[in-house]
Write a structure and sequence with these properties.
Helix 1 links the parallel strand 1 and strand 2. This protein starts with a strand and ends in a 6-residue tail after the last helix. The chain is about 30% helix and about 30% strand. Helix 2 runs parallel beside helix 3. The longest helix is centred in the C-terminal third of the chain and has 13 residues. By secondary structure, the protein is α/β, with parallel strands linked by helices.
Length: about 300
């Protein structure tokens, strides 16, 4: 039975994403779930050999990329994304039995969650002091253990801890979605499906035009970049890594050629190619006709 870590404790949206991956037959059978206190800790359990994989959040439609996950993927021994899933995210406000909204003076919340419900808090709990928790499920634990009056959390965490829901379906934006990825040690990428995502991290020379030249490797081959983001390397002011997602698979000729070209001039970390849950953008062009044309030229066929 594979051991799969997740950003815990039990009751987080990440555990729900792991359950969704299990139900979609991403794994060959049942898995042993291992809670980790952070995204980085979950990924480090892979590197240490304590688990076979980890599920972590990587992007929110409301707050953007999850920086802790991106940074943890960029440093240390290389890991690889092999699958993804998405969850519609809304929150439950939990409290100990007998507590009413009017009684709430302290509100425990994971920072990403607090950002996604800031307008609701301003309307309904404007006077509450925000207490920072390590995760959505940890916020519920903080309430159960008396460190806060209420929590921005999940219904699952409330059920497990015997807490009362003061409000459900809390979200500032309708259809807020978070994308989660399954990460393993490096291995052969899942087979191309025609609706795939490829992700890389680039470290470029600090010289004029280096970023534009990197983008050109994709543009000239008709590859659709769907995410472009920079994060500081934390090694000095003004030094950045660039995280790029594109439509396509490493087995697509255009994508493979772009990766080879980038490897010649930049430090590149391949984060994986895998089936995309939501197909966005335009797939790279096929090279079948061009490849056949070249084959015929090599055979000496005339009048092509």
């Amino acid at each position: 039975m594979p051991r799969i870590a997740y950003f815990g404790p039990s009751g987080t949206f990440t555990e729900m994403a792991l359950a969704k991956l299990e139900s979609s037959a991403v794994f060959d059978g049942p898995v042993e779930r291992v809670a980790a206190p952070s995204q980085g800790a979950a990924l480090d359990l892979i590197r240490s050999g304590d688990v076979d994989g980890a599920v972590v959040p990587i992007e929110s439609s409301v707050e953007g990329s999850i920086s802790a996950t991106l940074d943890s993927l960029a440093i240390g021994p290389r890991l690889q994304i092999v699958a993804e899933t998405e969850l519609e995210v809304s929150f439950t406000i939990l409290a100990r039995p007998g507590t009413e909204l009017a009684d709430v003076r302290t509100l425990a919340a994971y920072p990403v969650a607090a950002a996604q419900v800031r307008m609701w808090i301003a309307r309904r709990l404007a006077d509450a002091e925000i207490y920072t928790s390590a995760s959505n499920a940890a916020a519920a634990e903080d309430v159960a253990e008396g460190r806060a009056d209420a929590a921005v959390s999940t219904a699952l965490a409330g059920e497990r801890l015997g807490l009362t829901a003061l409000a459900s379906g809390v979200a500032d934006h309708e259809q807020a979605i978070t994308r989660f990825v399954l990460v393993t040690r490096p291995r052969v990428a899942p087979a191309a499906t025609g609706a795939d995502r490829t992700s890389i991290v680039l470290e470029l020379a600090n010289e004029p035009g280096s970023l534009m030249r990197a983008f050109a490797e994709f543009a000239t081959r008709g590859i659709d970049l769907t995410r472009i983001e920079s994060r500081p390397t934390r090694t000095g002011m003004g030094t950045y890594r660039f995280y790029l997602d594109c439509v396509g698979h490493i087995d697509d000729t255009a994508v493979a050629e772009a990766l080879k070209a980038l490897h010649r001039t930049a430090r590149i970390r391949f984060l994986g190619s895998w089936p995309a849950t939501s197909a966005t953008g335009t797939p790279p062009p096929s090279d079948e006709a061009a490849a056949e044309w070249l084959t015929q030229l090599r055979k000496g066929v005339a009048d092509l």
